[in-house]
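Co-fold these.
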Amino acid sequence: MSTITFDATARWGRSAKVGLRPEPFGALAYHFDTRRLVFLKSTKLVDLVDGLADHESADAAIEAIIEPGDDRARQAHVKALASLADAGVIEPAAPAPPIGFVG
Amino acid sequence: MTAVQPVPPLVDQLTGGLDAPICLTWELTYACNLACVHCLSSSGRRDPEELTTAEALKVVDQLAELQVFYINIGGGEPMIRKDFHDIVDHAIERHVGVKFSTNGYYIDKAAAERFAGQDLLDIQISLDGFDAATNDAVRGEGSWRKAREAMDNLAEADFGEFKISIVATRHNVDQLDDYKAMADDYGAQLRVTRLRPSGRGVDSYHDLRLTHDQQRHIFRWILDHPDVLTGDSFFHLNALGKDTGETLPGLNLCGAGRIVCLIDPIGDVYACPFVIHDEFMAGNVRDPGGFAQVWRHSGLFASMREPGAAGACASCNAYDACGGGCVAAKFFTGIPLDGPDPDCALGHADDAVANAIGSAPRPTQDHSRPVRLIAKP
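Predicted complex below.
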């Protein structure tokens, strides 16, 4: 349905339109606009989605949660994020404001 | 390799039950201005014990705390309740999405305008025949016209994508293409669900249920129209895809007491909207601990979350595809719960259904008003 292409070098974040509920297997995500229910099938993926917007790119967010050089895990998480982008669970995020900005 | 915590397969997680339902049905009142012959809740007259406004708002708070994503509000006709908007508004404020089912009688232009301005709100209008004759035979005279007026009002108010919901019957299943065109014209979404022998449906089921030919037709039609919603209600027909490997979209499992449930107007919690019977009543939201206590600790729900036995279906090579079908449909047609679904597409229940007519259990709540006799199409 979504036309967004997932670019792992860009900054991503969880959509404000999405509710995330922890479950033993990971989490249930529910998109309030599309009314789609999405399963996050591991707790690691949930951590990744939660911390996504804190990193300058999706790639960087993935690197932070996998063992260095574990290419297989990296690819698996890229694939998982791409499908979450397609479902609208995550979306392109604006860069974080500069540190120290108090305006 | 990254160390991965072993996690049971997802389907086992869902079968074993979640900490809170994904969604639930909440029938706000047994009062209804109509008397549809297949009404799941045998609605008509208000029950004096129905939840008060304060109690209903408290239920909303409990559901919000459990992070239930959305509730399906129904009835009866939910808009008959004077506090209908208060309950809906409170749910939306607490970020619990609302979809409500209505016959459309009370969606005038003003109501449509009001709904159009609300986030997290979805409306589902029931229409059980593409034309007035087919619809009114089931839902009552004049109901087709009122439903169409409500749709016109929503479209005019620019509500967006509302839903047109039909229960597939012997008389309307040939109209699915017409329905789809109607929904597309309105910019609405079509929803087609299964007829169940629940509520007043225990009496009308045998006249309205699909024939085996019609089952094959609708199975194919749903596969060909993946954008049509089904409430995951036709999973029993997956037996038809066992040779080709085709399955209908959705979770394809019975979610009763596992991922869904029903709160009825007096606060009783049932395993699903289709089993209003004491045997499937798990508790009441007025009990100490409220809804969460019932969901998490009811003995009934614990037993329903156990893996089911294939029973009489064990030797059927389609069992993995259909899972034995719908518990409610079996119960109200007098079939053992480990027996075949009465609408088994392979015909394995045909004799049992015919033999049990007259001896099957009846719903334990009946709020029907005296029935008017109307002509069949």
